[in-house]
Write a structure and sequence with these properties.
This protein has helices spanning about 5-15, 50-65, 115-135, 145-160, 170-175, 180-185, 200-220, 225-245, 255-270, 270-295, 300-320, 325-350; strands at about 20-25, 30-35, 40-45, 75-80, 100-110. It is α/β, with parallel strands linked by helices. It has two domains: about 5-135, no CATH class; about 145-350, Rhomboid-like (Rhomboid-like fold, Up-down Bundle). It is elongated and about 85 Å long.
Length: about 350
């Protein structure tokens, strides 16, 4: 027999990472998302019914009210509270017509005067955590992202007006990565390739990835940090291509992989939010990259992608998240970033 009851258990669940997604008044059902697991919901139900078949109808009505048939094949734990039923033994045989993997947890308890206090505590703590979550994504507005989209479009438009970006001469003219020219001192070719693309399809797929991924990262890191991560990741991506590939190359994908690296860094700092922030935008980015691989084949610069990914992770450690104050960590990541650039640049001349 449980010693705790409905709102007390909800409060402890919120404490340990649950987020209230809905309340069915008058407080007889509450749905929580487990933010740490990311794929698990907890449904707390308080019933005054005396028979199992009445409880079953109650549960099905609540499942419909919360539209839980839409959660797909996630895990759902139904926590059922109330007095002992006349046919208590039938509770374990209840079934639920939703695709989720459902587990039923039974607590036989009588609500006490403490329930109102725990309700206030749970709701207050949930609001506090949601405010902190909102703040986490409010450090910047996606202004730099749209500026980069516009700048990259203008470069592409001018390049296509002059010639074809499938023409190596046009690519060289507009700043593509060309190893012999970098070796002759044209160091700016480590920067300019991230604003140039080979054909409109290449441009469109990378800009869609930037539009999908960029606003999330800019809100998390702030505009200045976002710009630093994007530019330096792009430089390190081009430097990695310079070190390991002789081909002429251009494109923003290395800088975009730097944004993926920034999300990986964020995942180390705040694991409870990692899957929610990393999920759809990252999978879009990776899916587009796979699609591009089929279209461009061997011309896809995997060395640039790897350099951008590592660079984004290291540079994110240098600039830090807006609420980080670890100076020693920033020094360490600064050293790692310099060493990475030094190794790639030196190897390119070797």
């Amino acid at each position: 027999m449980a010693t705790s009851c409905f709102w007390e258990d909800i409060y402890h669940a919120v404490e340990s990472g649950g987020r209230i997604e809905g309340v069915l008044e008058p407080s007889r059902a509450v749905i929580l998302l487990d933010t740490k697991a990311g794929d698990r919901y907890d449904l707390y139900i308080q019933t005054e019914k005396a028979w199992a078949n009445h409880v079953a109808m109650d549960i099905h009505a609540i499942l419909n009210a919360f539209r839980l048939a839409r959660i797909g094949r996630k895990r759902l734990t139904i926590h059922l509270y109330g007095e002992r039923l006349v046919d208590e033994e039938r509770i374990s045989s209840l079934s639920f017509s939703i695709p989720a993997k459902v587990t039923l947890a039974r607590s036989i308890c009588t609500p006490t005067m403490e329930e109102d206090r725990f309700r206030l505590l749970a709701v207050s703590l949930d609001r506090q955590k949601k405010a902190e979550l909102k703040k986490r994504f409010s450090f910047g507005k996606p202004k730099v992202v749209y500026g980069l989209l516009l700048l990259t479009f203008l470069v592409m438009w001018v390049a296509e007006s002059v010639g074809s970006t499938f023409d190596p001469n046009t690519l060289v003219t507009f700043g593509a990565k060309v190893n012999p020219l970098i070796e002759q001192g044209e160091w700016w070719r480590l920067i300019t390739p991230m604003f140039l693309h080979i054909g409109w399809f290449h441009f469109a797929i990378n800009m869609f990835a930037l539009w999908s991924l960029g606003p999330l990262v800019e809100r998390m890191y702030g505009s200045i940090r976002f710009l630093i991560i994007y530019i330096i990741s792009g430089v390190l991506a081009t430097t990695a291509s310079f070190a390991f590939s002789e081909s002429i190359s251009a494109g923003a994908s290395g800088a975009l992989f730097g944004l993926v690296g920034s999300l990986l860094y964020f995942g180390l700092r705040d694991r409870s939010l990692f899957m929610k922030t990393l999920g759809p935008p990252l999978f879009i980015m990776l899916g587009l990259n796979v699609g591009l691989a089929f279209v461009l084949g061997a011309s896809l610069d995997h060395f640039a992608h790897a350099g951008g990914l590592m660079g984004g992770f290291f540079v994110s450690g240098v600039v830090g998240l807006p609420d980080e104050k670890n100076r020693t960590q920033r020094i360490l990541f600064s050293v790692l970033t310099i060493l990475l650039f030094g190794f790639l640049y030196g190897y390119g001349f070797w």
